[in-house]
Amino acid sequence: MKTTHTGQAGTSRRQFMRGALAAGAAGWTFARMDAASAARVIGANDRVSLGLIGCGGRGRWVMQNMVQPANANTALVAVCDIWKKRRDTYPAEAEKLYGLKPEVSADARALLDRADVDAVIIATPDHHHCLHTMAAVAAGKHVYVEKPIAPTPADLPELLALVEAVKGSKCVVQHGTQGVSGAGAAAIRDFIREGRLGRLFRIESTESLTAPYWNGYTGPESEAETDWKAFLHNRSDRPFNAHQHAKWMGYLDFTSGTIGGWMSHFINTVHFVTGCGLPKAATAFGARYAAAADPLCDAPDQTVAVLEYDGFFTQFNSHFGSALHSESTTFMFEKGLLRAGFGHDLGNPVYSSEGVDDSIPPTKLLDADPPYPGQAHIENWLGCIRTGGAPNAGMDWGYRQGVAVILADAAYRQGRRVTFDEGKKQLV
Predict the structure, then answer these.
(1) Fold of 182-371+409-414
(2) How far is CA 39 from CA 75, 107, 136, 410, in A?
(3) Where are the alpha helices (DSSP H) in 311-428?
């Protein structure tokens, strides 16, 4: 199923905002987009009042971690979701967890219009991420947005518009690729800079599960329970489909499957540890082989994506059907290799041309059991809101991640090597 909104990658932000996005199915407008967003100045000891857009499992997990950091001084004041069931149940759950019952709405615009909301967490379907982030920035709200920021070639115009919108704002935008805030990623970056194994030329990563993660997702059973047109956003109009609404991660019309869902983490870590620029080209292939895959979905259950950069290339492998090796990343150098856990940790030996290099034991690079980086990522965002600093996964990182995901997804859909013209900001 193909989207009818492919757009032109070279479309200017102003033209785009006056066109496809402003006239989208959800009826969104961005009257304040061309003016500098007036984010409230928040002092080091001031409370950060939070809004949550998207009350699914991921949104609830992020929010729970938002109020747990030591001295975070945060409060959840408003939530939004198009699914009535979540609107009816989550406020009571939040009150039990946080001691405050947030106001609830079905429309994100109502949440963003609130003066008592300083920052928002966006955990909506992938093809909504740019839309909601632009609206939040236009309203002067700081943003923590889940990945991928832009999942398919159809979303490239919105990504380009978002980059320009954030440039003209004072809002802190953090992307939910938490690996870059972990000690493991920093250790790998420093190891590469030392050059002890020579030049890095290849990075390969594999991610696997026994079954597609979207198989267990649930959603509204009737159109009366949701806002179907808002869910579709810039995708082609169609009658309500409960399966697509619930398991949208398994449909290529809405996202890029594991390329957006998993590779976005890996590739953002690659950008962080190497300091590289945008990818030059991509090749990708895959298919549906695993019997566990939902027969109604069309996202592949086996995917290989190769991205070319200046001086090195990456290969990302994802599959369902076996989780024997759930996460594994290998960095290949002229004189040896380094194995790590998806860039989140560094607990494996370093292999040189002479065998295992005992002079670089894992314990010297990183503690044996590093903390999960999600908490550190959230704390980094909250800290930057108060100091005005640059977050670990800001819009510059989000743009590179978005281009990489879109490039790989385009290569998969077209069955050919696809390049990215950095000057024209177009796929070729």
Answers:
(1) Dihydrodipicolinate Reductase; domain 2 (3.30.360)
(2) 17, 21, 10, 36
(3) 362-365, 374-387, 395-414
Return the pLDDT at 280: 98
- Residue among 213, 214, 219, 215 nearest 81 (CA): 219
Residue-range domain boundaries for the chain? 13-179+377-394, 182-371+409-414
Return the number of other C-beta atoms located less than 10 Å from residue 347's C-beta: 16
Residues belonging to the chain: 428
Question: pTM value?
Answer: 0.90
Helix 395-414 to helix 264-274 angle, to the nearest 10 degrees?
A: 130
Dist. CA 388–CA 399, nearest whole Å: 20
CA Rg, the chain, in Å? 21
Top-ranked range on mean pLDDT: pick from 183-192, 199-208, 361-370? 199-208
**Distance between CA 270 and CA 268 in Å, rounded?**
5
Q: Is 1 helix (H, G, I), strand (E, B) or coil?
A: coil
Q: Over the stretch 165-180, which tens digit does the pLDDT of each residue have? A: 999 899 999 999 998 8
Whether 421 and 168 have beta carbons less than 8 Å apart is answered as no
Nearest CA to 278 out of 175, 405, 165 is that of: 405
- What whole-number percentage of the chain has pLDDT above 90? 64
Peptide bond into 373 cis (omega under 30): no
- Please provide the CATH number assigned to the domain covering 13-179+377-394: 3.40.50.720
- Domains 13-179+377-394 and 182-371+409-414 in one fold: no
